[in-house]
């Protein structure tokens, strides 16, 4: 618990963006859902307000669903109905350790207790009520939760991308899990990872799990979200037994005050001079000073923030103009690590 940054909901009153806030018990939970079910659950949770009482139903309209997930479906009414029918049968297992015996305890809960459908063709909606056993993990949370903007997952096309993203994001505020600007998750055993994803009986060989689940999710997270992630593998002999994710947050949009957030000064235009001249070098130095000052400012603003990749690329190019091979090599390694 001491590694977790406790955030009080009262500090988030001004937030207007759609934000998914869920207990880490859900993030670490054992469950399997489809892509559309993941979309409904995340959208429903994002609509819960901080003062909503447990048991309050959540309504999702046709327009909200299509706009949030950027999809077109002329048969969405039937699609939402099918999602609801299957979702009410879905369960989630939470894992805890019995303090007296030290044994692992698994508790199975249903996600949804009631679903209401609007059968009218005009104002189509799906209204869900989370079960009493689950609502305490998503209503009026005070601590031990994970929070992210729904916009950062809106382009995901795999339910595993949702699951892995949320699990990685849990570690954003674990101060013991950050070093040199890089965040990292705990190491997790392959069998435990598969159990968490609800695929214990699938992907018998690790290479299929990596290709079919992990790498696809990482690609989507890197392409569409606010995180850049790489996979680390831990072997015993030739077999991968554990993995962990190393990541950086490319932007911090939930808690940042955009008015106070540092902005990079505009870089001067490249002078009309010959290549490898003194004037070209002077221009490169000015640009380096601007970018490195910006990097220092954003780190002072938020210690977890890093230089955006486009600026890092520019910085490498400017040091290349100066002929500083050591800096070029050092920064190129950072760029490669963030892209992989």
Your description of this structure?
With 340 residues, the chain is of the alpha+beta class. The chain folds into three domains: 1-154, Arc Repressor Mutant, subunit A (Orthogonal Bundle), CATH 1.10.10.10; 158-255, Winged helix-like DNA-binding domain superfamily/Winged helix DNA-binding domain (Arc Repressor Mutant, subunit A, Orthogonal Bundle); 278-339, no CATH class. 39% of the residues lie in helices and 20% in strands. The strands form four sheets. Strands 8, 9, 10, 11 and 12 form a five-stranded antiparallel β-sheet that branches. Helix 10 packs antiparallel against helix 11 (325-339). The protein starts with 18 loop residues before the first strand and ends with a helix. GO terms for molecular function: DNA-directed DNA polymerase activity.
CATH architecture of the largest domain: Orthogonal Bundle
Number of strands: 12
CATH topology of the largest domain: Arc Repressor Mutant, subunit A
Name the helix and strand elements from N-terminus to C-terminus, one letter apiece: EHHEHHEEEEHEHEEEHHEEHHH
The percent of residues in helical segments reads 25-40%
Mind telling me the CATH superfamily name of the largest domain? Winged helix-like DNA-binding domain superfamily/Winged helix DNA-binding domain
By helix and strand content, what is the structural category? alpha+beta
The CA-CA distance between the termini, in Å, is 31 Å
Figure out the total of helices: 11
How large is the share of residues in beta strands? 15-25%
CATH class value of the largest domain: Mainly Alpha
Number of domains: 3
Which stretches are poorly predicted, pLDDT < 50 over at least 5 residues? Answer: 1-15
Largest sheet: 5 strands, antiparallel
Radius of gyration: 23 Å
Shape: globular
GO biological process, one term: DNA replication initiation
GO molecular function: DNA-directed DNA polymerase activity
InterPro entries: Initiator_Rep_WH1, WH-like_DNA-bd_sf, WH_DNA-bd_sf
Protein name: Plasmid replication protein
């Amino acid at each position: 618990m001491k590694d977790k940054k406790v955030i009080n909901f009262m500090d988030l009153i001004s937030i207007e963006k759609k934000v998914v806030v869920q207990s880490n018990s859900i993030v670490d939970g054992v469950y399997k859902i489809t892509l559309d079910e993941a979309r409904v659950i995340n959208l429903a949770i994002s609509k819960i307000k901080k003062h909503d009482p447990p048991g309050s139903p959540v309504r999702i309209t046709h327009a909200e669903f299509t706009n949030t997930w950027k999809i077109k479906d002329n048969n969405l009414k039937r699609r939402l109905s099918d999602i609801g029918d299957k979702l009410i049968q879905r369960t989630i297992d939470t894992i805890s350790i019995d303090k007296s015996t030290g044994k692992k305890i698994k508790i199975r809960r249903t996600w949804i207790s009631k679903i209401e459908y609007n059968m009218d063709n005009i104002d189509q909606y799906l209204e869900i009520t989370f079960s009493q056993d689950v609502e305490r993990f998503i209503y009026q949370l005070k601590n031990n939760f994970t929070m992210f903007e729904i916009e950062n997952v809106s382009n995901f096309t795999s339910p595993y991308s949702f699951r892995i993203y949320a699990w990685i994001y849990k570690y954003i505020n674990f101060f013991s899990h950050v070093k040199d600007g890089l965040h990292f998750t705990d190491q997790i055993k392959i069998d435990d990872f598969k159990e968490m994803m609800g695929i214990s009986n699938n992907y018998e060989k690790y290479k299929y799990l990596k290709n079919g689940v992990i790498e696809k999710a990482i690609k989507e997270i890197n392409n569409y979200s606010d995180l850049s992630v790489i996979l680390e593998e831990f072997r015993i002999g030739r077999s991968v037994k554990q993995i962990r994710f190393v990541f950086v947050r490319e932007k911090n949009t939930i808690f940042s005050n955009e008015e106070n957030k540092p902005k990079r000064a505009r870089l001067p235009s490249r002078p009309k001079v010959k290549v490898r001249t003194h004037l070209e070098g002077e221009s490169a130095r000015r640009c380096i000073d601007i970018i490195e000052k910006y990097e220092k400012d954003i780190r002072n603003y938020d210690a977890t923030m890093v230089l955006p990749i486009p600026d890092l690329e520019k910085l490498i190019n400017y040091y290349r103009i100066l002929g500083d091979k050591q800096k070029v090599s050092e920064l190129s390694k950072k760029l490669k690590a963030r892209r992989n």
